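Here is a typical protein record:
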Amino acid sequence: MDRKLSLKGVNLKRRIAIAVILITVIPSLVFVCYIYNYYISRAVLLILGLIVFLGWIIALEVLFSILRIHSESQLTLKELGEERLAKDLTVRDEVEGLETAFKLISSKVKSSLEELKDLSSRIETLNKELAKKINILSTVTQIHSFISRGEHRQAFGVVLERVREALKLSKANLLFIKEEKQGWDLEYFFEYDGSLEIFKKKYKDLFTAKSLLLLDEKHHRESILFLRESLGLRNLFVFPLQFKGEVVGVFVGGNNLYGFSFSSEDIELIETLSKSIVLIWEHRRLYRVVKDLEIYDPLTGLYNKKYLQTRLNEEIRRATTYQRPCGLLLVKITNYREIQSNFGVLEGERILKKIGEVFKESLRPIDIPARIEEDTLAVILIERNKRQSQYTGVNIIERLNSYFKEEKLKPKFSSSVAENPVDGDEAQKLISYAFSHLEDNEDR
């Protein structure tokens, strides 16, 4: 019942109506009644006074509510930085001031919503740009991971995959100049087809350019128009890959989308990834140089295959000159793959390291041991004929069997020998001869 009689849930319009009724209508009715009856009791006058009093209380409450809202709206304008504007407005009363304040606040809210929408659009754009930067960073990280392992082809593949995804390309290739004894050639990476042969014919036009060449809806580079038909691409780019001012290759790609043009962001991405491509190329070149200079096998500490071939040719020439023998011994672990499958790669490497140690201990200081295959070791036996080389092989295998007799899965060995000039007068001929006789000499 109290809630029904309370004015808390009544809106401003109804409150004003109630106040007007209590102050004017009811007293007027009483006044009319007095005119007709010429008498009003004290009780009626008391009730009438109470009603008028309540009416004024409601009217004052409405007035104070308006003033409070007006005051709060002015504070809101001050917080919004519109205090000066609010003061400059000419208003006749608080209600008009309140209306003006509401208009200003509504205008400010509308402006703020537009700014918020614009900010949201800019944040979305920044998020897209950030995603691209993160994608590039991820690509660079992957590239460095492959480079550190010497897997340069995989590193090139990551770059081409990223540029295809980002630029919606149907084709992307790398072409590098490959110097050969008879002249030069092109080294292709990925998706090679006959159409790329055009680069050989137009070598001077394409490999002497110093900047990005574009062909799309907005860019019409006449120097590469012939590529549109040759490569079957409507839109394409050719970026010369430079190292120390010299062009070492080209980065080419494109698609067949209608109305497509490369944006400034696309061009920036191409230039960034091209720098990574040149870094990979240079690292690969240096890696090959270092590889050529290496003479030791990193796992066993013995010489590697390239060094053995070089030294074997030298020893063959020396033996021929002084008419002395030169022997070659091969020892193969015939069950090496089985050991790796059952006990793991690390166990296989441990066995190889120990075999390398036994080799060094069993040979003379002048002999040259090397690891020439994953599971095969070789020794150049200076001034040893085939019979003496066979004896050395038997001795080494006996020592190896003795050392590994307690192993769960003992390594098994096969050996063979070759002698200059009986079995060959060149390093490769001796090695091939010895390999052809390995399988028939297990554990001898």
Notes: The chain has three domains: 2-79, 150-291, 303-436.
